[in-house]
UniProtKB/TrEMBL annotation:
PANTHER family for the chain: BETA-METHYLMALYL-COA DEHYDRATASE, MONOAMINE OXIDASE-RELATED
Superkingdom assignment: Bacteria
Limits of the MaoC-like domain: 13-113
The protein, known as: Acyl dehydratase
Amino acid sequence: MAQRFFEDFVVGDVLRLPERQVQRSDIIAFAAEFDPQPFHLDERAAPTDLTAGLSASGWHTCAMFMRMVCDAYLLDSRCMGSPGIETLKWRRPVRPGDRLTGTSTVLEARASKSRPTIGIVRFRHEVSNQSGDIVMWMENPVMFERRPAR
């Protein structure tokens, strides 16, 4: 069973994320449960300076991104979780019918000073729509198990 360990992430690597199709029904269902602002629930909601028509919650965009990352490499890794997010920016609205793609770029990889069995990889993630517009970017560290000595 091939799994990525800390040592398999090299600074400069660009990991491609699989495409995710955004469905109107998913936008509304997520918003109804977690972010029931009018512009996430109804196309006819009064427009704001940032929105005109139905748009996904930024948190929904993060959730879709997380699924993309899991499918791309996290589920086939020795991931130990993340201590948090350093930067998160929502750049453009995500709309019904959008096709999201993305990348995770390895910015830094270092062994943990306090836990020798763990390495920390810092990523910059970018999610784009079908027009190539970046809709979200994020930087964060992720902890991975180090490959056991043989």
